[in-house]
Model the fold of this input.
Amino acid sequence: MFLLKKIIEAFVLPPGIIVVFLAGGTFYFRRRARAAAVVMAVLACGGWIGSTGAFSDLLLRPLENTHRAPAKPEGDVIVLLCGGFRGGWKPFSASERLAPGTLERAAAAHKLHKLTGLPVLVSGGAPFSAEPESEAAAAYLEELGVPRAKLLTEVRSRDTQENAAYSVALCREKNFKKIILLTSAYHMPRAALLFRGEGAADLVPFPVARRTGGARYLNDYLPGGGGGEARQALNEYFGLIFYNLYYFSRQ
Done:
């Protein structure tokens, strides 16, 4: 019953229902308009494959395997990159306002701070809100027990390139020479490229929150099993191509 429910659910909810619609169109037009049927069949297959967890894993794995976290990280400061937050209300816990990606990164930054005693520079502005993401994440870290004196916030950045530019500038101001960069594993290749491009020569990538490498289940092959992660991976590849060309043009 459990598996049957999951299969039905996958094809009733988007994007599975769109795959069903396209498959129905393929069957309907198979004799009336063969070209239209072929197009619909291709779109149905692409929609199914592109929304599966197996496909998103295929895209994410090369990104996540680019860097490995060192067993004994050493540096002058931990730079935590935010990945979104939810505003608009007063929560019971500061964690409620953090998007899942930010929450994963902040929890890892807290543990890394406990292991190293290093200050944490939280980077993230307010591109789509009235409050900087970094302030919300810093509030959560303080709630976990990180002393406020060990927390710095960078509140102007709107994307990863600005995260890098403003954070590196602030590190120079505070005389932090060796940066431990903490972000999601799939995001690390682009983030490390941008930080080095902004002059962070002594950079220690510390990727967290890996999404690939686990066992595969039926759900990974059903429509919608990717949870939008394929789009995130494609966004990272686009960013890598764009900024590699950008820094190449500046040479």
Notes: The chain has nine helices and five strands. Strands lie at 77-81, 120-123, 151-154, 179-184, 203-208.
